[in-house]
Design brief:
The complex is a heterodimer of chains A (604) and B (197).
Chain A (H helix, E strand, L loop, with lengths): L2 H29 L7 H15 L7 E2 H24 L25 H12 L15 H31 L5 E3 L1 H27 L9 E4 L5 E4 L4 H10 L20 H25 L3 H28 L2 H5 L23 H14 L14 H12 L10 H21 L4 E2 L2 E2 L2 H27 L23 H15 L14 H31 L15 H35 L14
Antiparallel strand pairs in A: 1-2, 3-4, 5-6
Chain B lengths: L4 H30 L1 H4 L3 E4 L2 E5 L38 H17 L22 E2 L1 H5 L2 H8 L3 H10 L1 E2 L10 E3 H11 L9
Antiparallel strand pairs in B: 1-2, 3-5, 4-5
Helix pairs in contact in B: 5-6
The chains are: A mainly alpha (604), B mainly alpha (197).
Chain lengths: 604, 197
């Protein structure tokens, strides 16, 4: 590790810390319906949307109505995205002619399974991409089919977090808010204005924003280079801010047109964390005890620092096999050293490791380096972060409600230890809440492990419709333990709604498109619905005044307990799988063991 | 639940127009007005012909040019098909590739001794990395100087003027834009087309 690398990480974290309170206070105002400095300009737009959609602004819903609105909104927008993809050949803003006879050779066909996978992926805030965007998607598909979901799914995530906070903040009431109003306010006052500012800043750094067809350049050596174009900056801003992560290009945030400079990279990192971090303050503010929010912030910070302090040295110490070939592994003033395969020079090791940690702490999934080429220990961090449930700041909204889920579990476990009915923020945590939380925890773990297990062994005939390459392991780009990591990462990323990948896996076959699609739906909705049930149940309860026996949930003891619960739940669930993947790969790499791409023999 | 269908459809359509059409149109309009060059891809034109983008690396294989990193985008620096190698650290293919490239590098740069800089023989994440580390440029100075029949010190001075330091003094890593460096080379030490090498 270099001192400059550590400095960049430190400055980043201090800025997140500094922005948490202003961001959180602003969002509190928005979701409590107070006027802000943006209201004179944007309130008419908000009202116009209610009018056009027939929404009664002052009507509130029970948790069931709130969940129903979310499900129907997700369904309607999913169907629209599916249709736009399938019909993109007939729609405008398609200079490359994708989906038509004029498409260049090598363009990816928009099959029903790919369109399904992508529609689910963007609806669930995952942004898993089984396709190469610049050879598959028209500009219209990217803007109206995909980038819109970057707003919707982020706004829905924030809405659900706010609804769960209301469950704690309110008492003896049936209602937890109006889903439509929360979504519209999140979009109009938070996501849109920030996106416009960030998008324009990105353009100033070199991110492109146009509707031109791809440019044909004649290089210095006289070759023809086709340079992809498109409305990138507008999508880039919300991709990052909404912790979506779906790149306009296959290179994602490593592509120089998505993330051209170290400054743009720094702003991307900040944009990923700013809303999730702010929401911890919003939480504290809305439950009228900001210490509660800072306790969550502290627990998240501990896990963030732990992650980055494994990933960074992991990548900086590099690959000993390359060192034995005469490649420099140590950083010097004029070159980065370490594991530079799959990393950009302008980012170097520190910014790549930091980005990988941040994007998987949050459910973002944008990448500025290729996780598939990470060292085993460096690559372990993103995988573990996803499997922790992406609660380290986490996705917009999703991180907070995920962490609150663990907080409920933590007070429950503490309650078991001392033999008292657990309480959190004055609400008794009873059978129903714990059951719902455990349902979410177990479903997510089951989805990751069962699908990964199936992917590791399932056999298909070569040239079968479901997986033309043959067995599901034939789609891997790496053999040995790294191959298992590719499968495990795919289903972890899908279920966790992250969207980053060990991208060597050729995932655009019906088998992977359908199973990962299913994993994404499970990960999104079988977490949200139980948590909305918790919100509804909590809102009905009375607030019990704290007594001498109440576990304080704002101190270091609780922070430690919470971190412990997050780590232990995930460790117990995933340790065996992680051992067979990255952990064993690490020891084999230290022994210079290599794996050729031989197909795993077919069972007979 | 189905009574939420109509508001869902209306909300989907209204918000799609707002965030999918009006928002990108607004950003495009402002971007084209105040940052027209960046919005169009920071393209470099010489005599009215586009020769590339200053942000996008291109393939260099001739000895008189500084060569960028190997690329996994298409068949190398394909800016319509970005991506990395996605080879893991224990993949035989990765080791074979780097071993072959290292041998080739030593043949083409016989003056070079010591470990090869970490970025020079590894592929970037996008396959379009426009930069080299200063050490990787330095490693090629002797070859470029000999091919262009210029003193290495002169080339070194040119490389040094092209080093971009960390932004704000601490962000990112020092780097050299390969295309801009090579254009400056052509500009300053124009090759004699009849020299026959």
């Amino acid at each position: 590790m270099t001192s400059n690398g550590l400095l960049q990480i430190t400055v980043f974290f201090l800025l997140v810390l500094a922005l948490t309170k202003p961001m959180g206070a602003f969002m509190t105002h928005i979701f409590e319906g107070k006027r802000t400095w943006l209201h004179p300009a944007l309130r008419p737009l908000e009202r116009l949307i209610y009018k056009l959609c027939g929404i009664q602004e002052d009507q509130e819903h029970r948790w069931t109505g709130y969940a129903a609105s979310l499900l129907m909104f997700s369904l309607a927008s999913l169907v629209l995205t599916y249709l736009i993809q399938r019909m993109q050949g007939f729609l405008p803003f398609n200079p490359q002619g994708f989906g038509t006879a004029h498409a260049a050779q090598g363009a990816t066909a928009m099959t029903p399974d790919l369109a399904f996978n992508t529609a689910v992926s963007f609806t669930t805030n995952t942004n898993w991409q089984a396709y190469t965007p610049e050879t598959t998607m028209s500009y219209l598909t990217q803007m109206v089919g995909l980038a819109t979901h970057n707003f919707f799914s982020a706004a829905a995530g924030i809405a659900i977090a706010i609804a769960l906070i209301r469950g704690f903040a309110r008492h003896t009431t049936e209602t937890i808010g109006n889903f439509w109003v929360d979504v519209v306010r999140a979009t109009v006052y938070v996501l849109l204005p920030l996106s416009v500012v960030i998008a324009l800043f990105f353009v100033s750094q070199g991110v492109i924003q146009n509707f031109a067809s791809y440019t044909k350049a004649t290089t210095l050596e006289g070759a023809v280079q086709t340079i992809a174009q498109g409305p990138v900056a507008s999508q880039e801003a919300i991709k990052i801010l909404g912790t979506n992560g779906g790149g306009f290009f296959n290179g994602n945030s490593a592509h120089p047109f998505e993330n051209p400079t170290p400054i743009s990279n720094f702003i991307q990192l900040l944009s990923i964390f700013i809303i999730p971090a702010g929401l911890t303050y919003t939480f504290g503010k809305m439950v009228k005890d900001t210490r509660q929010g800072w306790a969550l912030f502290a627990a998240m910070s501990v896990l963030f620092v732990a992650g980055v302090l494994v990933a960074y040295p992991g990548e900086q110490s590099g690959n000993p096999i390359l060192a034995s070939l005469g490649i420099e592994n140590h950083p010097t003033a004029t070159q980065p050293g370490g594991n530079m395969e799959g990393k950009e020079v302008r980012s170097g090791i520190a910014n790549s490791a930091l980005f990988a940690t941040v994007t998987t702490d949050a459910s973002c999934g944008a990448v500025n380096s290729m996780h598939d080429s990470f060292t085993p220990l460096g690559g372990l961090v993103p995988l573990v972060n996803i499997e922790l449930g992406e609660v380290v700041f986490g996705g917009v909204g999703a991180g907070l409600y995920g962490m609150l889920m663990f907080a409920i579990l933590a007070v429950f476990i503490a309650g078991l230890m001392v033999g008292r009915t657990p309480e959190y923020l004055g609400k008794k945590i009873e059978q129903k809440e714990v059951k719902m939380v455990m349902l979410a925890v177990l479903v997510l773990a089951a989805s990751i492990l069962l699908f990964s297990g199936a992917g590791a062994v399932i056999q298909f005939a070569k040239n079968s419709w479901i997986n033309p390459t043959g067995p599901a392991t034939a789609n891997l780009n790496n053999n040995g333990p790294h191959g298992l990591s590719e499968i495990l990462y795919a289903y972890s990323s899908g279920t966790g709604n992250n969207g980053s990948a060990l991208a060597g896996l050729s995932a655009n076959t019906p088998w992977y498109n359908l199973t990962i699609g299913l994993a994404m739906l499970i990960g999104r909705f079988l977490m949200i619905i139980p948590l909305l049930a918790v919100a509804g149940s909590l809102a009905q309860k009375r607030i019990v005044p704290a007594s001498a026996g109440t576990l304080p949930t704002h101190g270091a003891l609780f922070v430690g307990l919470l971190v412990g619960v997050v780590v232990i739940v995930s460790a117990l669930t995933f340790f065996p799988a992680l051992t067979l993947g990255p952990v064993v790969e690490h020891f084999l790499m230290m022994r210079h063991q290599l794996f050729a791409l031989l197909l795993i023999p077919v069972w007979s | 639940m189905w009574n939420q269908l109509l508001p869902s459809v209306r909300m989907t359509l209204v918000l799609s127009v707002l965030t999918g059409l009006l928002y990108p149109a607004l950003v495009t309009g402002i971007a084209k007005a105040i940052f027209p060059s960046q919005a169009n891809g920071s393209l470099i034109q010489v005599n009215g012909k586009v020769i590339g983008s200053e942000l996008i690396g291109q393939k260099f294989s001739k000895p008189e040019y500084f060569q960028g990193r190997p690329s996994s985008a298409g068949d190398g620096y394909d800016a319509a098909s970005s991506g990395g190698s996605n080879l893991g650290p224990t993949n035989q293919k990765l080791i074979d590739r780097i071993k072959a490239d290292a041998d080739k590098f030593h043949i083409e740069n016989p003056d070079f001794t010591g470990p090869i800089p970490a970025d020079l023989l590894t592929t970037s994440a996008s396959g379009l990395d426009p930069d080299l580390s200063p050490a990787s440029a330095d490693a090629q100075i002797a070859r470029v100087a000999r091919t262009r029949r210029v003193s290495p010190d002169e080339i070194r001075r040119l490389v040094e003027t092209h080093i971009e330091t960390r932004q704000l003094g601490f962000l990112g890593e020092p780097r050299v834009n390969v295309l801009k460096l090579n254009m400056a080379l052509d500009d300053k030490y124009r090759l004699d087309p009849d020299s026959g090498w």
